[in-house]
Every structure is written in structure tokens, then in C-alpha cells.
Amino acid sequence: MALVTVSDLSRHFDGKPVVHQVSFELNEGKTIALIGPNGAGKTTTLRTMAGLLNPTSGSVKFSGMNAGEDIRPYIGYLPQYPAFYEWMSGLEFLVYSGQLAHLTKDEATKRALELLKKVGILDAKDRRIGKYSGGMKQRLGIAQAIIHQPKLLILDEPVSSLDPIGRREVLTLMDELKKDMTILFSTHILSDADEISDELLLLNKGEIVESGSLAELRNNYQTAKLELSIEGDLSTFQAAVSQLDCIEECYIEKDMLHVLAHDIDTARSQIIQMVASKNWSLTHFSVNRASLEDMFMKVVNS
Amino acid sequence: MQWTTLFKKELLENWRNKKWIWFPLVMILIAIMDPLTTYYMPLIIDAVGGMPEGTVFELPEFTPTDVIMMSLGQYSIIGVIVIALISMGTIAGERKSGVSELILVKPVSYKNYILSKWASLNVLVWFAACLGLFASWYYVNILFGELSFLALLQIIFFYGLWLTFVLSLSIFYNALLKSPGLILFATIATIVTMSIVTQIFSHVLSWSPNKLSSHIIEMLQTDQIGSALWGAAVITVALSIGLIISAIYIFRKKEMAA
Predict the structure, then answer these.
(1) By CA distance, what is A149's nearest residue in B?
(2) B108 vs A contacts (CB less than 8 Å)
């Protein structure tokens, strides 16, 4: 079921469309990655959904909610560069956030301590936020975003600014949170999207260029790449392989013959037959499925 | 409930960043500067070398009313600037740092947000003004003669309204603008403009907030609260309320991330 329906959402800055007629649905309980190159409009889309920006046109609707109702109680939001009251301690900030979301002081304190433990900064609860490291701030940011148990958690580039250890920790944390809420996060690090998301939204130049589950997208954009290295003059092999009708493209790079094909199985068997029949001395043969990155480049460049 | 949370946070913030210490001290200093320097002027002149021999220099005699009004005169200039300074970033600073993005994405009522800022600064400013004027009144009584305690309370009440107006103006610009420096400038520029306009059209604008001080002098001299003072007080309160309502309205329309 769709938790959020975004229809024809546009947002212009100084007359220029940064997000243009974007429509998509977020299904309840799913983790959705919004991916796209820098400047694609990811942050603007997320901020508009969180109510921090007003759409130029179009709408964001939550299921079971009346038009005009305040959507903020149902949303948790972490901006790309979260800023806190540096003079507060981590615990104070969480309790404050919780109280603002209409928890009582006791409830907020209880929940804050749970979350500090969950995100792994319980030891630093009484330290001033000004003294926190980047990774600790990011984790505190996630904690404050979920203190009121929102239905939708919006994270803007949650791991981009972290070192590998911090990144791993935040990804693990997100993986845990998946069970309890719908998560929409933006990233330009494709392997992160690949790792934890169920669905992908590809945004480029303010428009959704592709969307779907990971498996669907893989299917649609499945181009396998076969890599061969053969003893002898590669260009003669290239000429021969190019004759096959299942081949899309064939080129030589770094002493290897790279062959792109839609239908991997056919391509593989035809090439192996050819190698066998012509008695080429094959030294290396591998099949690589297209990575998310290849797909991304293909979509963005098309 | 939410209002209390926001209000307490403001008080705590002003406590942690020591505003509760330095701002009252500054206000006391500003208030007692003139009573003390005026009284000790002959000594000061002597200490810096004195007058050439034969100079006849009559220092005017000051009444207690004159001297406490000097304190108000200093508040109207330096005091206003300091108040504009402590309030210039109260909302704009949070927007600039980005922390308001975290706060206002929570179900926070914009009315509560603005009112908590306004109320907490009012508490601070009134507290500091009370201390400062009390200190001034104390020295006036010791050095220049008697001024009743009731008169002090009346001065604090009416002059405090003017300070509340200055704060309301600053909060209004805070809702409108994003740069603290610009807010400081706009607040002071508005007050200067108002003061010039009030002076030029003095005869018709006797209820202007800028006239509160001169009406307070009359009150001290005649020992009664004139209708012009009440008028100016009512106008000042009304303008302050108007500014805060506009601030809430503007803030509601504003995009927090733009």
C-alpha cells in the first residue's frame, strides 16, 4: 500500500525548475533510495516532502490524512548537514526533540535513552554536542529523527560524509530501522543504495528517469559484459566475435576483449562454441552482470 | 506544554551562553555611568589637570529627576543597541546554522516558536532593566536627593514598554530576514527613523513610542501620570502586539529551508 503519493511535484528556484513534475509512490514498509548525480534535485525533493519547502506545483499526500493536516508528526527528517544546539548535551537535545513532538518529559527521556543506546552513543549522552565527532552527530541526527516514531523517515545523504567505519555503522542501523518504518534516503553512493534499498528512484536533472525494485531494474537494464583474453592478435578475434548477432558491442581495452550483450546466456554459449571451434587459446573468460553503477551511467547519459 | 518546553529551552540557552550574567551587568553599567560621572565631575576635572587658574566654571545643579533621566537617555541609545545585539540572531541564527530545520520539521507551532523567543528575551530585558534602573535610583538617592520608590516603579513600567517594543521590532525582523547583521541594522534604522519622524511631527505624534521618555519626565515633574503617557503606553503595547502577530504570520508563510 502506498504510504505517500507524490504527484507532479515541481519546485522552481528563481524561475528555474530544480524538480520538475516528479511523481512516485512510497510503499509502506519499504526502503527506497533516491539516487542521482549531484544537483539532480534530490535534496529539494526531500525537503519539499518534509514540508521545509513549498512545492511550486503538485502535491505530497500521505495515506489516511486529510488535506491541510499537519504532516510533520508522521515524518522524521535528517538533513544532509544536520546542525544542533551545540550547547546542549546529546540527551538534552533528544529529550527536547521528543517534547516538541508532544511526548511528556518522562516518555521523551525514556525513549531518548533507548535511542542513544540503539545508535551507540549512550556513553556520550552527557557530553556537549559541540564536542561530538561527525559520525556521532549523524547518529544523533538519526535518533532525533525517529524519537517520535514517525511513519516515514527521510534521510538526506545519511552516509556520504562519514568515514568507512561510520558509514558501515549507519548502514547497519538503517537496516535495523527498516523493520519499523518506511525509509526514503538519498545517496549518490550506488553501492549503499544497492545494499539496503528495496526500491530505487533515479532522479536526473529534476526528473524521475527510472524507478522500480532492484530486480526489475536489473532486468530492464541487464547488459552483461563478457571479458575474454586470448593469446594472439585480439583484433582478429574482435572481428570474428562482432559477426555474432547477439552481440551489442565489442571493444578492446587493457589487452582484453570486452563484449556487451543483452542475452547473456546466448552470448556465452555462442562465444564458447566459437572459441572451441576455432581453437583459440583462451586464457581468461568472465561474465559480469551490470552493476548499479553501469545502469546509473546508462540512464543518466541517455 | 510545547510552549513551556520552548520557553525553558530559551532561558536555559541564555543561561548557558552567559547572557543572564553579562547583559544585566552591562545594563547596570550603562545606567549608573551618568549619575556617577555627573556627581564626580569636579573631582574628575581636578584629577586630569584641573581648570586654568581664574576660570569660573559653574556646574549646573541637577535634580534627581534630571539624573535618572540621563540613565534613560543612555538606555535609549546604548541600551537599545545592546538589546538589538542580543536579539538579532535569536531566530535568524538558528535558521542560518540549520538547526531550525531539525526543530521546525517537528510538529512545532510557529506561534509557540516565535512567542517563546519573544517572551524569554522580554524576561531577560526586563530583569536587566530593573536591576540597572534600581542601581541608578540608588545612586541618585545617595548623591542627588530623594526620588520615591514608587517613581522608580513607574519609570521601570513605562520605560520597560519601550524596551519590549524594541524587542518586538527585532523579533519581527528576525521572522522576515535571515542575516543577523541585517536585522541589527534594520532594527536600529527603524528606531532612528521613528525618532526623526516623531521629532518633526512632534505636535501630532504625541503618542509615539519614542515620546515615552519625555512623558516620563513630565510624570516625574508633575507627580501624576498624564493622558499622553497612557496614550503612548497603549500605542507602544499595541504596536508590539501587532509586530509579533505579523512576525508569526510571516514566519508561517516562510520556507524554512529556502
Answers:
(1) B106
(2) 72, 100
Say whether both A67 and A214 belong to one domain: yes
pLDDT tens for each residue of A83-130: 999 999 999 999 999 999 999 999 999 999 999 999 889 999 999 999
* Same domain assignment for residues A187 and A51: yes
What does the domain layout of chain B look like in residue ranges? 2-253
What local confidence, expressed as pLDDT, does residue B191 receive? Answer: 96
* Domain residue limits at A249: 224-290
In whole angstroms, give the CA distance from residue A4 to residue A2. 6
Place of cell 518506511: A182
Binning pLDDT at 50, 70 and 90, where does residue A191 land?
Answer: confident
The x, y and z cell numbers of residue A260, run together, are 556487451
Same domain? A180 vs A239: no
> What's the rounded Cα separation, in Å, for the pair B169 and B37?
32
Residues from chain B that touch A50, judged by Cβ atoms under 8 A, are 105
Contact A85 B99 (CB under 8 A): yes
Residues A138 and A244 in one domain: no
In a domain, A299, yes or no: no
Cβ neighbour number for residue B176 with a 10 Å cutoff: 17
Contact check, Cβ <8 Å, A83/B102: yes
Report the number of distinct structural domains present in chain A: 2
ipTM: 0.89
- Are A179 and A41 members of one domain? yes
- For the ranges A235-239, B84-88, B132-136, which has the lowest average pLDDT? A235-239
Which residue matches cell numbers 583474453? A229
